[in-house]
Write a structure and sequence with these properties.
This protein is mostly beta strands. It has helices at 2-17, 35-38; strands spanning 41-49, 58-66, 72-78, 82-93, 96-101, 105-107, 112-115, 121-127, 136-143, 147-156. It starts with a helix and ends in a 25-residue tail after the last strand. It binds copper (II) ion (CU).
């Protein structure tokens, strides 16, 4: 579970930068809320798969919780680690899962939306350099109402990555859920 320890540390850092005291207590406390927090959007566990070489594509997964009173949507992601960053989903095309770019990802009020292997994800097209396990990189998310928020994405190793194939359904074990709710 070393990746988990690393991720927890980095997540705490990211949470600290957002002025939050921990994701369990965000809604009721957060006395020094950042603008992102004031708008009730919380990003949980952002992570990316390690990539073996350069000139490749990467994928970012995370969970977005909307504790605001407004339906929101993720409309874009920005960063310098890749030439192009898109929002993607997977759709079944006959027997084959394929990726499709989507213009936005709805985050309804009061709900959490999980970007995860085999489903919605943020696509990093043409990485500037490989994503190394244990490292992290900044990413900016843009939401229609909440605006832009910066996060740190943790790079995890992936035993199941086989070359370019991220179009097949993932057999990843479910992520541990650190907060027991
Ligand atoms: Cu994709």
């Amino acid at each position: 579970m070393t990746w988990f320890t690393r991720m927890s540390t980095a997540l705490l850092l990211a949470v600290g930068m957002m002025g939050l005291s921990g994701c369990e207590t965000v809604a009721s406390t957060a006395p020094l809320a950042s603008s992102a927090d004031a708008k009730g959007i919380i990003i949980h566990r952002p992570w990316a798969r390690a990539t073996p070489g350069s000139g490749q594509n990467g994928v970012v997964f995370l969970t977005i919780t909307n504790r605001s009173d407004l339906d929101d949507r993720l409309v874009a992601a920005y960063g310098t680690m890749a030439q192009t960053i898109e929002l993607h989903t997977h759709v079944l095309d006959g027997p084959v899962m394929k990726m499709r770019a989507v213009p936005y990802i709805d985050i309804p009020k009061g709900q959490s939306v999980e970007l995860r292997p085999g489903g919605l994800h943020i696509m990093l097209i043409q990485l500037q350099s490989p994503l190394k396990e244990g490292s992290s990189f900044p990413l900016t998310l843009e939401l229609a109402h909440a605006g832009r928020m910066s996060i740190d994405v943790i790079v995890k190793g992936s035993a199941i990555t086989n070359g370019q194939d991220h179009t097949t359904p993932s057999r990843d074990a479910p992520l541990p859920h650190p907060h027991g709710h």
